[in-house]
Amino acid sequence: MDKLLIIDGHSLLFQMFFGMPSRIVNKQGKAIHGTLGFVGALNKIIALTKPTHIAVVFDSEHENARTEILPEYKANRVDYSEVPDSENPFSQLEDIYTALDFMNIKHFEADGLEADDVIASYAITYGTDMQIVISWFDSDFFQLINDNTCILRYRGDKTVICDEAYIENKYGILPDQYADFKSLTGDSADNIKGAERVGPKTAAALINQFGSLHDVLNNTNDISKPYIRESIIQSSARLANNYEIIKLSNNAALKFNINDLFRSDMNFTTMDILKGIGVYSQ
Predict the structure, then answer these.
(1) Residue 282 falls within a domain, yes or no?
(2) Residue 112 DSSP SS3
(3) Fewest beta carbons within 10 Å, which of 38, 80, 169, 278?
(4) Nearest to 74 by CA among 107, 115, 108
């Protein structure tokens, strides 16, 4: 069966830029550690997953519909427009784009959307005909996991493949219930507040009892613990908004069709690529 590997470009860039053991510069004094780490990690992910098709998706700089629902959405993120190049991962983004072109890998920004929406659309659109591997750290993608779709969390030798069993063992729910679960618990990384006094165990118990967030909100009288019942009632509007923000669908237009994403059998070492794009020379 064919396999589509979808990479979160910004996530991998940030991971490598801040995770490399030291700042590396080339002979011209240009910092290249983010590019070096990105290309090296991408090569390892490709070797691990052996995809037939690849896409690398980057977030756009434009506002998206989620901020209309929740103005505070991701408002806790760093504004890198005010950060000097030496501390700014985006300063190496153009070199990464050039490296992806050299590797003949399609890449693009999710214009006017979040990369999450585009990734979800690819996974849902093609997931019945081929295997999907999403290389991403955002847990929102857990809701897409099924027999053909898994999430890869790249950590070198400690890389984790998240499948249906992983979600059931870690959270006690099914993958397609994850958006309901996360709506209840909230997500500090995205500045989304859940219900007071509802942590992961309570959220899983509620989802297992009622089946979905919708059924939780429609059956609050059946919640046995008074303080949990009151918390859900008081935060019901916010929880419904959370679900609208977190739930992923296949509504995004796809920039490339699946044939455009075919990966030709080209094998380059990390140094081959960096030398080929002119950012490294001996």
Answers:
(1) no
(2) coil
(3) 169
(4) 115
**pTM for the full model?**
0.92
| Residue 103 included in any domain | yes
* Residue 212, CA distances (Å) to 207, 233, 261, 272 in order: 5, 15, 35, 50
The answer on 208 and 255 residing in a single domain is no
Question: What value, to the nearest 5°, has the Cα angle with vertex 116 and ends 161 and 172?
Answer: 45
pLDDT in tens, 135-184: 988 899 999 999 999 999 999 899 999 999 999 999 999 999 999 999 99
Let me know: does 261 contact 106? Beta carbons within 8 Å: yes
Q: Taking Cα atoms as reference points, which of 172, 173, 176, 181 lies closest to residue 146?
A: 176
CA 44 to CA 29: how far, in whole Å? 27
- What tokens does 172 get? 């006690």
Q: Are residues 46 and 148 in the same domain?
A: yes
| CA atoms of 136 and 114, how far apart (whole Å) | 13
Alpha helix locations (H) across the chain? 9-19, 33-49, 66-69, 93-102, 115-126, 164-171, 178-185, 200-210, 213-218, 226-234, 236-246, 270-276
Q: What is the pLDDT of residue 36?
A: 94
The tokens for 281 are 């020379």
State the Cα–Cα distance between residues 132 and 2, nearest whole angstrom.
9
What's the domain count of the chain? 2
d(CA 2, CA 84): 42
According to DSSP, the β-strands at 160-162 and 3-8 are unpaired
Q: What is the dihedral of CA 227, 229, 230, 236, to 10 degrees?
A: 140
Residues 129 and 98: their CA atoms lie apart, in Å, by: 31
